Automatic annotation (TrEMBL), chains A, B:
Swiss-Prot/TrEMBL keywords: DNA-binding
Species the sequence originates in: Amycolatopsis speibonae
SUPFAM superfamilies assigned to the protein according to its UniProt record, in alphabetical order: Homeodomain-like
Recorded superkingdom: Bacteria
Residue ranges of domain HTH tetR-type in the record: 21-81
InterPro entries: DNA-bd_HTH_TetR-type_CS (IPR023772), Homeodomain-like_sf (IPR009057), HTH-type_TetR-like_transc_reg (IPR050109), HTH_TetR (IPR001647), MftR_C (IPR041347)
UniProt keyword annotation of DNA-binding present: yes
Name of the protein in question: TetR family transcriptional regulator
DNA-binding region: 44-63
Length: 243, 243
């Protein structure tokens, strides 16, 4: 072994990043099961640690408090979002990019259906866990807003900061709407289809320069050139008013 | 006195709704001063109660916990929002109505500049208070979403629930943006002007049927009727593409 003797001691399960990730997930799964079985308040950190096969001190190496364990992979997802933004080309529409980044949250929920469903029950029934979840979403939202603010400012938008805050909130809300719908269906709902619908609504709403630039506003005016000009204009106006 | 002898005992300051409101505010103001002066964690409920001239038991008649005191008039504002919605005519645009209701939050902050500024410092520096604030905003947002969902559904919108969640989040974010900007300016910023700008952005984004129905998308096509039809169409298309 050529390791420096001053290297920090490594715990068995936490030796590698993958091992640490596994242990975090094991602690989260054990916690969720205990919270559902005996109640959130009645469950102790010692019980969670024991159920995951580790000690109390190991638990606190991974989480600051009992209520953090429910959103175990929050930091991971935030880091992946930042990587997605860093890797994005400058030509991608900022709102589309932010939707792509936030869908990492959907992926992470979909990858662990059982834990996700139990957590959903808990956040609906335990107010402090509900508050914790809301705070977690707020952190994602701030990551989105920071990215959008920079991109909108590059595009010369004088209201970049306002627009970024509003769009980030809309994107997070669309994401949560899809997530809740999917969880209520017990994971049966087509999450990809509802995500596409929800993100399309947001992308449309925050299209740069307003929706008037999109292809949706192309007006097809049917007219014959024999009609006098004022009548053509009247017909065009009537068609526009009818839309 | 003709009061029933079974009537619950009344505390001196809490006899009337107005008196209760005054005492809530006094407790909140005392708490904010103590939190700023000696730190949130170090301040006890006993100290807050004493500073407002009441006992510990009175404090707990008004607030469930120490961290509730910072958002003392939350319930009042939510009730006023509900009244605003109940009184609104069916012809008012739902998103405009929701913006009008959420601006009650701005009014309440503006009415108590000193407390608002101190609370702003606290929520930026104490993570648990920041989380509490986020949870408070989430509750306003759910009130807005419920109203919008009902109104959008009345309008026959099949995506009423999604649209309501997204619009409510956008409105709350616009409101918070204005509030933070005003607080950062020490209450000097023109809160009415920035609120008008922020709400206009949201109303525009969530205009029913997309911005294509608004007057902004009226296309003025200048053409002579002697021009052949295909050339007219080509000119119209070119004009639309240029917009």
């Amino acid at each position: 072994m050529t390791d420096s003797p001053r290297r920090a001691p490594v715990t068995r399960a936490g030796a590698t990043p993958a091992g640490r990730r596994r242990l975090r997930r094991a602690l989260a799964a054990a916690a969720v099961d205990l919270f559902v079985a005996k109640g959130y308040e009645a469950t102790t950190v010692d019980e969670i640690a024991a159920a995951a096969g580790v000690g109390r001190r190991t638990f606190f190496r991974y989480f600051e408090a009992k209520d953090d364990v429910l959103f175990a992979n929050h930091d991971e997802i935030v880091a992946e979002m930042e990587e997605t933004f860093a890797a994005a080309g400058p030509d991608r529409d900022p709102v589309e990019m932010a939707c792509a980044a936030v869908s990492l949250v959907l992926d992470s929920y979909a990858a662990e259906l059982d834990v996700s469903l139990k957590r959903f029950t808990l956040t609906r029934t335990v107010p402090s866990l509900r508050d914790k979840e809301v705070a977690t979403v707020d952190r994602y939202q701030r990551v989105l807003a920071r990215y959008l603010r920079a991109r909108f400012a590059e595009q010369g938008d004088e209201t970049a900061s306002l627009r970024a805050d509003v769009a980030a909130a809309a994107i997070a809300a669309a994401n949560n709407h899809v997530l809740r719908r999917w969880l209520r269906s017990g994971g049966q709902d087509d999450i990809t289809a509802s995500a596409a619908e929800a993100f399309a609504l947001v992308i449309d709403a925050f299209r740069p320069g307003g929706a008037s630039e999109g292809p949706e506003t192309t007006v097809v005016a049917v007219m014959t050139t024999a009609t006098p000009l004022h009548a053509v204009i009247a017909k065009v106006n009537a068609a526009l008013a009818e839309k």
